[in-house]
Amino acid sequence: MRVVAFTKTSDIGPSSRCRFGQMRALLAQQQVSLATRPLFGRTYFLLGRVRPAALRILLKCLYVPGRFLARLVELRAARGAHLVVVEHQLFPYLPDLGERLLRRSATPWILEFDDAIYLTRFHRAKIARLCRLADRVVVGNRFLAEFAARHNAAVAVVPTTVDLARFTPRRPRAPAAGAPLVVGWIGLPYNFPALALLEAPLRELAVEVPLVLRVVSAGRPRLAGVPLEAVAWSLQGEAEQIARFDVGVMPLPDDEWSRGKCGLKILQCFAAGVPVVASPVGVNAELIEHGRNGLLASSAADWQRHLRALARDPELRARLGQEGRRTVEAGYSASAWAPRIAGLWQEVARRGAAGGKRWRGGSA
User: Fold this and answer.
1) What would the pLDDT profile of 339-351 be if each residue is shown by its tens digit?
2) By 3-state DSSP, what share of the chain in percent is helix, strand and coil, each rounded to 5?
3) Are 250 and 275 in contact (CB under 8 A)?
4) What one-character DSSP code corresponds to residue 180?
5) Cα–Cα separations (whole angstroms), residue 138 to 29, 46, 135
6) Which of 132, 216, 322, 335 is the most buried (most CB within 10 A)?
């Protein structure tokens, strides 16, 4: 079966990489040929770091229309596909003409998203329309499914997964005399505001426990009084950097946007055998069973208490890290989910578009 996915970004973007890029070879084993057509690539992320803001906006205004034109041309790839998957939307902030063309093309198509994009400016009504237009909607968690189900009865939940082959679990080290506990966070700069939840707890804890907050990203957050080390993110070095964390963290405010997140930071740390402390928001509270495979922190006092305990107890770090790895092996590995995704796609292709063509099986 031939599938074309119009993704939001190339593999440099975490969502597109985890939900499509890492699945290509695994899906090929299921006789599914996946071709991706990204809207944005490395240049888009580099432009996000340009200063001053006026120059950044100008450069984006020059870059984005060119990418939209390229996507318009690439839509021709849908003609030979048995199924089309659209990640988020074809043309952000523009009318849904592209998706309507897909609907009329008689090729079955899936809308997929793993963030609460319907909460962003100008998008609630559009994403609702796209849900209605799609033959199936695939989302990353049950919170997103609740929104999608209001607009389309055919909704499936496919969680974000991790390629375990990229992560080698290691035994937590006992820090050398004077060596700080490495508290690690990885993510895109636009998620830096969530780190504000750790500012006071880490600042106060650093007085009694040697520690450093290591941020793996494309920028450097500002946290007053917190020992901080910024490390540039790279796809090649991502797994190695996570493996160097003593503790991984995923703080989140308790709001609807955060409940739409799919817990990738937790899953990556789990895969590397790194113990995790996280806010009990959305999927975080589903991934972490408090005290068994991780720790949940609802307050500044919780963050301090849990990080202090992990700093002082290498055996606790080891046990939680091992259980985290087992959690991914049991339910969130890319290899385990590839057959399910292939089956879902094949089902949609066989059912066909409304009034359109159907895939009847056979070679990719």
Assistant:
1) 999 999 999 999 8
2) 45, 15, 40
3) no
4) P
5) 22, 29, 10
6) 216
Taking the C-alpha atoms of residue 323 and residue 329, their distance in angstroms, rounded to an integer, is: 10
| Burial zone of 355 (CB within 10 Å; 0-12 exposed, 13-18 middle, 19+ buried) | exposed
What element of type H or E holds 214? strand 211-217
Residue 87 tokens, joined: 């990640």
Tell me the three-class secondary structure of 147-175, residue by residue.
HHCCCCCCEEECCCCECHHHCCCCCCCCC
Tokens 């995923």: give the residue. 250
pTM of model > 0.70:
yes
Q: Which residues, in sequence order, are CB contacts of 214 under 8 Å at separation 6+? A: 182, 183, 184, 185, 228, 229, 230, 231, 241, 244, 245
Is 314 exposed, middle or buried, given 0-12, 13-18 or 19+ CB atoms closer than 10 A?
Answer: middle
Beta bridge partners of 111: 86, 137
Report the interhelical angle of 264-271 vs 314-331 (nearest 10°). 110
C-alpha of 17 from chain center = 8
What whole-number distance in Å separates Cα of residue 232 and Cα of residue 218? 6
Closest CA to 260 of 138, 137, 114, 158: 114
Average pLDDT, the chain: 93
CA dihedral 129, 283, 196, 241 (to 10 degrees): -110
Closest by alpha carbon to 103, among 353, 350, 359?
353
Domains of the chain by start residue, with CATH: 2-161+333-351 (3.40.50.2000), 164-331 (3.40.50.2000)
CA gap 184, 277 in Å, rounded:
10
Query: Residue 197: pLDDT band by 50, 70, 90 thresholds?
Result: very high
Give every strand in the sheet of 83-87, ordered side by side. Answer: 33-36, 2-6, 83-87, 109-113, 136-139, 155-157
